[in-house]
Write a structure and sequence with these properties.
This protein is of the alpha+beta class and 66 residues long. 33% of the residues lie in helices and 15% in strands.
């Protein structure tokens, strides 16, 4: 059986924690920030934990993450 391939786009966007949860960064923080409110920019800071249904789909794209 050949090795399974990791989806390279998913590898760059998601991180799997030691406990198996999937973390991701929010979109909308690259440019055109002047028209966005401070509240929106603050809420987009940092990473978030993905819900379990979507996390299971991501884990299929990252076979060697765990």
């Amino acid at each position: 059986m050949p090795k399974m391939k990791t989806n390279r786009g998913a590898r760059k966007r998601f991180k799997v924690t030691k406990s198996g949860k999937v973390r991701f960064n929010r979109a909308g923080r690259r440019h055109i920030l002047t028209k966005k409110s401070s509240k929106v920019k603050r809420q987009k800071r940092g990473s978030r934990e993905m819900n379990t249904g979507d996390a299971n789909l991501v884990k299929r794209l990252l076979p060697y993450a765990l």
